[in-house]
Amino acid sequence: MKTFQELILKLQSFWSAEGCAIVQPYDLEKGAGTFNPATFFGALTSAPARFAYVEPCRRPADGRYGDNPNRLGKYYQFQVILKPAPAGITDLYQKSLKALGLDPKLHDLRWIEDDWESPTLGASGVGWEVWLDGMEITQFTYFQQMGSMPLSPISVEMTYGLERIAMYLQKKDSVYELDYGGGLTYGDLHKQQEREFSRYNFETADTALLSRHFNEWEAEGVRLASLADPLPAYDCVVRISHLFNTLEARGAISVTERAQYITRVRSLARKVMQLYIAKSTPKSVEAA
Amino acid sequence: MKPMKKKVAASDFLLDVHTEPLPARFVAPALEQLKSGASRWLEGKVEHGEISVAGTLRHLILMVKEVSAKGHDMTERFKGPKEQAWRLPDGKFTPAAEGFARKYGLSAEDLRPVEGVLYAEVHSKGEPASVLLQTMAVDLLKSLQFPKSMTWEETGFRFGRPIRAITSLLGEKVVPVELAGVKSGRAAYGHPVLAKAAVILKDPSKHAAVLRQGLVIGDPAERREYLLKALELASKKTGGRTEDDSDLIDETVFMVEHPVPVLGRLRDEHMKLPAALLKMVMKKQLKFFPVVSRDGALLPYFVGVRDGLSSGNDLVREGYQRVLEARFNDAAFFVGRDSSSTLESKLPLLDRVTYQKALGFLSAKAARVESLTIWMGEQLRSTAPIDERSAAAASRLVYADLVTDVVKEFPELQGQMGGVYARKDGLDERVALAIEQFYFPVAAKTPVSVTPEAAVVSLAGKLDSLAGCFAVGLIPTGSADPYALRRQALGVVRILLEKQLPLDLDKALEEAVKLQPVSVAEPGRLAAQLGDFVWARVQSLFEEMGYAVDEVRSIREGALKDLPNAFRRLAAVRAVRREPAFEPLAAAFKRASNILRQAKYENGTAADRALLQDQADFDLYDALVSAEGAANDRIVRGDFEGGLKSLATVKPSLDLFFDKVMVMVEDESLKRQRLALLGKLVRAFRRVADLSEIQTPA
Q: Could you tell me the pTM of the whole model?
């Protein structure tokens, strides 16, 4: 039986063999692997991009105090981004499942319409949830827009739900019972974290501090963007996006405020993207 | 010797667009467009036989039988300006005319005048079918409309999902089509996981068989048959059958290419959850078919439909059950949380849920629904047996389930979960039912609320939504109807008719408008506008039932004051209309109405027999009085047909009246009397119907 860490290693070696650079998780809190600069900036320009990586993701509102066997406030995604999207990518994806020991011939593999949208990034894509015997194991997306701008060439993003796949492979009903590797269970490594962060996100987070930080990092992002260095400014986008998620989980944002917060994150994200594109296009750099 | 007509060679054309998985909802409409598009495109261009389509989530297939090798020779005419503008007085053409002709490769002399206008006529030889079909294929694929389209490669071509291959054959020849970086060929592709390899087609005839070998049933009708049989077979062992759900069946037909059923079991502990919730989880979250007994009760089984073969079915079943159990555990967790407090105690939470900006929170809407329920109970007290206390108790709680976890997760269960929780709270069954059926009817053909209490509460909710939205200007236009007001109005109409409730809708709408939290400039006018909106639904419902437009129009007056009665009046008009004496009666009635209208007659003077003059006056008066008496006896018993027939007995006297006397005489007093007499007649008929609305042959 494959351990959680072996599953990651298998995916890394599969996609490494397919010519991907295996990059490391980005060192800031974020809600999805898409926030890793490899994807966020990788999808933006016309230069080819092939990356794969594990990304820890924080979803403050999804925490369940460690009580729910299927829901986590923090978990791992395995993300692959390929640009341009190769023809035959769905076949290649199926091959990757086979490499994990999931022979599509012996399972029910279904592609269910599921388009993706990130209001804070002004990003959207078209694609599917991939179901293995009824369980969603992958989000498969052709990016169409970033920062509200149409993309070309188009990237394809595959996000494997590692815990789900591991639970399937190990036939476990609870994520906490997963064999992580190294003689540890997933619960050994994560249960305390789930309990304490659920309390933090739902009960004890200092909302005044969080909203002050939101304002400050937003202002800092705007300032940095004006200095024409997109990468430090992008860190501000990632930070305020997570601050927003925490504030929302904490119940500190009303319906009308919510839309305003999203607009603020998105407009900073757009600034950063435009800056990045301008900087990575040689001519406009000279002009600037 | 007779000249032999040379037979032109004909071949079948196949176009198969092989895509990445299209969303199920995209496929049928796309096939529809392919078929009608091909038919339109080919019209007049080339001889051909039957046009058919087939498809799955990965194939859009068009087949045109017996396409002639060569298209028709064609003459196209292009309209130019008027001849006099383009020809000089000396008969010469202007330079502009020369230019126009040149555009079509002609000289001005070639332009043909038809009725003073010059036309350019362009003759073209019929093109080879392969050329035509190549153009058609590209045209059709470019013009397909999907609910949402995407780009995926450098040409930026838009389609529902990426195109991966195109098979395009005319007889044994490939018709070269190039789109989105894909070049057509003769390879055909079966199931992406199960088919061994692409098959090289010699000609279109083997296409369906090749797909079939590759575990793809291309024809949706055949796939549906196959699916239905599979479902039946799989569920047979349980003694039950899969629940009829045409939406799920339609969806499944386009979610799998080769349906294989997998029967699974539910755990006993989960069977304690509300059946509606279990079904919703199975159908909406996992696309499984619930298994039910002959009388519709949920059995502890489900059938999932996998795509492909049955190898590994045990693995798949195990996987299905594990996913389902996880979802049920989630659902059980929600039900447990929801049940930890009563519906009543959830009411304060409605203070935080906005119904509509100007119309306030759900708590305010709930209060209005309660007031309106109580008001309607009073209105109907003498005519319909309603337990007013239960209705009022239910009306307070109808929105409480909107703040439960289950309904937040499954909005479709609104109402149903309210009923479940009401029973858990130990509330009266009448109250629980009224909460459960609050949103009934949920669609045009689904049942209305069963009990009178449920009917009234449901009416109150709908009338409040209608009045509220109209009051703030959210009036449906065209196809835009975000608050589903048309459906709600139809719901009102169906409840009143099916539950036989003689509610005065005009008054009820006024009451509902009065309760709105916004100031309405002219409440009477708004209520009338709402009445017209509801009437439009009445009209279309009656027309759908087979009543003629004019018949429905004839009962408009007072219809909303008592809809069940209005329907009886309509049936009477229809019944009497079949009789031969009806048309002349309607014509005479129309004449009477016209006279009144032209004289701008308004009710006022009562007809006084003593002030009339001629025998024809007296005859009509007497006939009318006796007919009215007889009609009234019948109408009060609800026998409108009998009433109408009684009134029809005045016909001979009315004819004689028109024959013998003039209404618009010099003598003012006599004129008034005769108008009053006709007014009396028209009013008597109008208690049943305004026959002047009935179209009679001229």
A: 0.81
